[in-house]
Structures are given as C-alpha cells and as structure tokens.
Amino acid sequence: MPIKRNRHEAHKERAQKDLQLYGNKILRSEEMRRAFQQKHHKLSTVGDHTMRVALASLGLCYALRKLHIATDIPAVVTGSLCHDLGILGREKKYGSQEECLRQHPADSVETARKLVGELSEKTEDAISRHMWPFAGSKPPNSLEGAIVSMADKIATFEDYAEAIRRKAAGKPRRR
User: Fold this and answer.
1) pLDDT grade, residue 2 (50/70/90)?
2) 33 burial via Cβ count (<10 Å: 0-12, 13-18, 19+)
3) What is the DSSP letter of 18?
4) Which domains does the chain have, with CATH numbers?
5) Which of 47, 98, 118, 155 makes a 20 to 30 Å CA pair with 163?
6) Is the pLDDT confidence value at 1 over 50?
7) CA angle, corner 75, sides to 129 and 56, nearest 5?
8) Partners of 39 in the beta sheet?
C-alpha cells in the first residue's frame, strides 16, 4: 500500500514546481543571489523573506482554486519573487527608511522588467502595490496584487514571530 503524502508536502512540491516553471530566470539571477546576502526586517534576508512571500502567495492561489476562483499563477510568481528586489543596495539608494518604503516598489518594478522584460498588468500591480495599506500605497487593482500584498504581510509576521520565539528561547536570531 503506497504511503499517502500529507497536504503540506504536496503543497510544497507543487509550489516548487510552479516557482521553477514561472520564476526560474528570476531565481537564477544575480539580483536573487544578492537578495540572500542583504538583511531585511532586521531579522532575515531579502531572499529568505521573498521565498516566504512566494510560498504564501502560491498557498493563497491554491486555496482560491479550491473555491473555484482562478488566479494568474505566473503573475503571482513573478510578482512575489520581484516585489522587494528594488530594496537591494538600500543603504546607498535611499536617504531614509520612509523613502525606502515609498520608493522600493517602483524600483522593484524596474528590476523585474530588467529580469523578465515586459510585465503583465497583474504582475506590475502585484509589485508596485505590495506595500498596501502602508507607506501611502494604493490598494491593488487585481486579485494577484492583493494576494502578493497579503502574502507579504503574512511573511513579515512570520519573520517577527520567529524573532520573538528565538528571543524567548534565548537563541540568536536567524540570518
């Protein structure tokens, strides 16, 4: 009798396939390599955060699919993988944290264009409006934009929750 995989393993496997299928060029880029070297939220790296956003985004897409709500998975993958790439080099690019919060979505759109060429409306929306409802950002115009924005907040919450758990356990924070 074959061993049945649990839902979490199946989701993770499916997400890895979608990330490779639609995001391989981004995942193999110099920008993504640099993302794993730059701190983010003082708790992890831009790359680690980005992967959590991508996995959370795909999880939301899969859940919506079960409700018969279609999503543009290629737009979500590209949007989630590129949403914070404009932050790279933030110490030299931005004069303040506020400037970074306001400007990095537009810079991330430009980085995405450099990596993949023309962006769909949904992809651009997901990247440019992922900060909503913070930093004066406008709400997303697409379901895909809302998914990436929500996944970004979920992943950020996970970053902070992990830091709190580690502090309580007396462990150093992850890098």
Assistant:
1) low
2) exposed
3) H
4) 7-166 (1.10.3210)
5) 98
6) no
7) 75
8) 45
